[in-house]
Amino acid sequence: MKKKISSIIMILAVMLISLPSVTLSAFKPATLFKGSDRIAVFAKADADRLFSEGYKLEQKLGFSPSTGYSQRLSQSITAIATTIYVTSVNDSDGIALPCSATNKCYFNLEPGTSKEERVVCTGVGATSFTGCTRGLVATGNSETGSSTLTKTHNAGSKIIMTNISQFYGNYVNLFDAQNVNGIKTFYSFPKYATSTDLPTQNGEFATKYYVDGVGAGGFTSVNASTTKGLSVYGTSPETVGVNASSTSGLSFNADGSLQITASTTGGIKADSNGIYVDKSMDYNWTGTTTFSGITIGSNVIYSATASTTITGGTLPQPVFIASSTESGTGKIKISDANNLLAIFFDGFAISSATDGNTVYIQKSGVVNGFTGLTAGMDYYVQDAIGTIGTSTGTYEIKVGKAISATQILIDTGDDEYVGVWNTTSASSSTTVPYYVKKVVIRATWTDSNDNTTAGDLTVYAKGKTVSYFYNVMDISVASRAYYITAELVGRVLTITHAATVGSVSSVNTYAYYYR
Q1: Closest CA relative to residue 62, chosen from 148, 143, 117, 8
Q2: Do the beta carbons of residue 364 and residue 310 sit within 8 Å?
Q3: From CA 448, how far away is CA 503, in angstroms rounded?
């Protein structure tokens, strides 16, 4: 009998050896992890290599539940504890359960007893589950715990991983509406049940039927506007192009790129940076051209209103802005070296205008448009209104220096003579113009013995506003001397003559104004 049994065992062994090899399961794509690193693998060789480097298979609990986890509590827990200490956090294969907020662990404490309690945890430690919500309901997918369902549990109490009702809330519901989070990778194209249905909401996917029928083949001249620069070619799928006019500056280059064709005669050019104006060319503006507050290099040009007829468009004219004490306040007037009300210069009018119309003024830099200038000479406003020359007019108004026969560099002068006041009174006052900064006084006087002398004094609108001159006129008379006092207070100039002994018989005083 023993021999028969041995023979049977040997036959069975030979049969097993001779059986063809069977592949129990094909390799499926998976995710391996080590610490915070996550690597997706699609071949068994790659998985084996990563396992040898310490990577572990990522098990998404709640989506891929663990089979056979059953342990005991290592510590007693209260009804409100959120950390559950266990004898081990490893599954039946010895791999730690990777519980997290997105891969939750669902447990049953003391199942089948009066102290049965359903729990979900979102973290795992070396010997504990953390972030636990206690007292889950038996029906439904709510993960809000109830204090009436929590229990105390002693050390040694059983804990198992089981499919409580909340667990199923992590799976896709085949029948009801549901929000699905996270990235879902499909290895085949999802299909819509009815192939001819079209999407109606902005967030819905477009089917192949929609793309072929409406998105491409349905785009024709019917829905392409031919009045908005588009053109169609009658192809299938339809081809749409840009209708570029060869007479409007648009064209296509050899590569088929749309480009702007710049005129080779108008000073407008194009390069890789875009369209630009050729600054080396001269431009002749015709018609009414309006500029306001334009700065060209260092030449500041601004617009203003003329108070009289100005012909600066023919030849630049020296002009000024009327002050608040004059008629036409704020308007442009023509400079005049023989008129105390017009001995000012604020720039050149470079356009023509009539009273009340816009005129353009250049107040700095190089002014063009003159004729017959002598380069290097200073130029001044003349007595002939609106003209300039190399000599001063009645009053000194410098406008600049000629740098060519047609150009003046604006440069105003200092200490310009702008008027005189004469008095023969021993004591008198006058109001000087508001623009006067300095007064130079030349005084002569004669005493009762016909002794004559003269003196010079200077006063300023600011700073030295008082000046004295003292002179001994007659040494035959002890302590006989004469003096003059000049004082500029505000805009009032006061000049006083006096003698220490005797009297002044006659005086003659000139006050020269400078700005």
Answers
A1: 143
A2: no
A3: 6
On whether the CB atoms of residues 405 and 372 are closer than 8 A, the answer is: yes
Categorise residue 92: left if φ over 0, alpha if ψ from -120 to 50, beta otherwise. alpha
Q: Name the residue with tokens 């009414």.
A: 288
Other C-beta atoms within 10 Å of 2: how many? 6
* Site of tokens 């009018």: 349
Average pLDDT, the chain: 80
Q: Residue 268: what are its φ and ψ, rounded to 5°?
A: -100, 125
* Residue reference for tokens 């049977």: 8
SS3 call for 139: coil
Indicate the pLDDT class of residue 350, thresholds 50, 70 and 90.
Answer: very high
Residue 51 belongs to what H/E stretch? Answer: helix 44-52
What is the end-to-end Cα distance of the chain in Å, rounded? 146
CA-to-CA separations, 123 to 80, 102, 280, 463, 500, in angstroms, rounded: 17, 10, 74, 86, 113
> Using one digit for the tens of pLDDT, what is the confidence trace for 319-339?
999 887 778 888 999 999 999
Q: Mean pLDDT, to the nearest integer, of 334-350?
A: 92
For residues 183 and 188, give the distance between their C-alpha atoms in angstroms, rounded to a whole number: 15
Q: Answer yes or no: pTM beyond 0.70.
A: no
Cα of 119 vs its chain's centroid, Å? 54
**For residue 490, what are its two tokens?**
């505000």
Task: State the Cα torsion 345-347-348-350 to the nearest 10°.
Answer: -150
Q: Looking at this protein, which amino acid is placed at residue 168?
A: Y
DSSP 194: S
The confidence score (pLDDT) of residue 370 equals: 95
> In Å, how far are 274, 459, 490, 491 from 494, measured between CA atoms?
69, 11, 11, 10
Copy the structure tokens of residue 507: 């005086």
Give 383's strand partners.
none
The CA angle 313-314-315, to the nearest 5 degrees, is 95
Asked which of 135-144, 219-228, 276-285 is least confident by mean pLDDT, the reply is 219-228
DSSP one-letter string for 332-358: EEE--TT-TTS----EEE-SEE-TTSE
